[in-house]
Give the backbone structure.
Amino acid sequence: MRGLISDVLRDGGVEVVAEAGDGDEAVRAVEDRRPDVVTMDVEMPGTDGIEAVERIMATRPTPILMLSAHTEAGADVTFEALDKGAVDFFAKPGGEVSTGVAQLKDELVEKVVTVSAASVDRTTATPTAVASAEPTDATLVVGSSTGGPNAIERVLAALPREASLRILVVQHMPEAFTARFASRLDERCAYDVREAGDGDRIGGGEALVAHGGSHMEVSHAADGRLRVRLVAETLGLTVQPAVDVTMRSAAEAIDGPLVGVVLTGMGSDGAAGAEAIHRAGGRVVAQDEASSVVYGMPKRAVETGCVDEVCRLDEVAARALAAARALSRDEGRGRTASPNRGGE
């Protein structure tokens, strides 16, 4: 399996400087060879991948990409590895390295190259919980990719339930992982969080996580509640779920206060969504470069000129809530429809 992964990476132009058969060897290899990036499996003899990640991040912080089984059990240990400091993960098709990695070699190489450039010395200040607030009647759409699970968790954990936001979360993540991600968020924040199902509705104090492998569109908004639909078609996009799809549909369907948040991640997803929210009279907050694991998505959103605030991760919740309050004060709506609304 190590040989196959090494061959795939070499064929993609990545220099493989060492291989390791267990966690202890991995820790020593990182110390001796000082690689730009590590691919790490979870289940290994002796020291497993979780402990190896923790030791590497404590002694020589290095970007780590986890190779994870495409199962719910694989999701549990993968999130544990992310908690310990791993940057991202690659879901092995069918849970087996040998049967599927070669078929997805381009994706694996892209992940490795992206993770190699990730910042492991980023700002780690814990967001301060925002003070209790009156209901805002606002919708918050949060999108991210690489480095996003921990970033989203930190933002949601800082938001007060009293604000009664309706929250839509879009994280680039495969199907087997999004239900577990929603459960983790539900456990760690004051909002009621669940994975989105087709036709699901939410009101204030609730959040939906986009289902892996499907786009999440806002299909209807009325009486303080939203309804979503899941779209199985790719819509010509390279990621699914896509932040742009949810943000654009939210700008189309929602008349009340709307705030978009673009967090750490590779690529440009979220930039078109930020433009749609801006044109519809909403506000957009983006994470800054210093606190981002990968400053791709926030950077591209900022480049549109449609981002109202750029701030550290520990400030995102407060800035987003302040934007929601400001919009709510404007005659309870705070938004003006654009002549091009819905036409993107």
